[in-house]
Amino acid sequence: MQDLDSTQITEAAIAQMANTPDPRMREIMEAAVRHLHAFARETRLTPDEWLKGIAYLTAVGQACTPYRQEFILLSDVLGLSRLVNVMHDAKGREEVGTESSLLGPFFREGAPEIPMGGSIAGTSTGPEIVIFGQVTDGQGQGVPEARIDVWQTDADGLYDLQAHDPSVMEMRGQLRCDAEGRFHFRTLKPLGYSIPMDGPVGAMVRQQNRHGFRPAHIHILVAAPGYRELVTALYFGDDPNIDSDTVFGVSASLVITESLALPDAPVPGVPSVRYDFTLSRETEGGGGRVGSDPSRLMPAG
Ligand code: BEZ
Ligand code: FE
Questions:
Q1: Structural contact between residues 215 and 248, judged by C-beta atoms closer than 8 angstroms
Q2: Residues whose beta carbon lies within 6 Å of some atom of ligand 1
């Protein structure tokens, strides 16, 4: 019979898992146990606090639906999603590709096709802007006919899913670049918005005296055969929360400002943003979509 003190219990738990056949799973679970135990020792966690933590995680699970992933939101507000993205970028970009950002919960497959220069606004109204640029590889060569998916809030800070019934797709679209990877489209200047605050994650954010807002941004997904899919977002530098995004999605390289003075703007007289996206080759490490798309977690069929 083992008589385990507060340190030996960690080694005993790890020893019981030593026969896990999948080496990566063994590595992850061993580290999880080591860090969880160290956390409990460091904070001198009491049984009451342990139970509160269990009740909290139970509530997070109960808040999940096919359209809402509260666990991913929890990961987002704790900075874990951003950390995983940053490590994935460092592995794959070799310092050449555009930085990634969170996919967020509002991506939808099958957005309307937009012709070159078309608008994603649908019936939404507000200040118009134009986004243009080129999709290139790491050597600066245009990537022919790359596909761009774009989605954002309207000028009131609402995604279509929040503003309408789910049959309406607005403020989102897919377009195809030309043979040199160039693109331009019209949209509205989005407004920043609050993450969903009506569940256990929102309750925690409020308890921590955090504002819960994301700065105004445009989500962009760029895909082309032979290249890693890029999931990123462009953030408006004039948003008051640009330095305090609740989910830590902003990087300096993704901050934009619209201007009426860009010489190569395709639509003169409309404020424009030029942003060029650089894709990494599929072989340059990892691959696949990084982000929080709840549809990936739904059971198949
Ligand atoms: C978003 O960008 O839409 C988003 C990302 C993470 C959490 C909530 C919203
Ligand atoms: Fe968003």
A1: no
A2: 73, 76, 102, 104-106, 195, 214, 247, 292
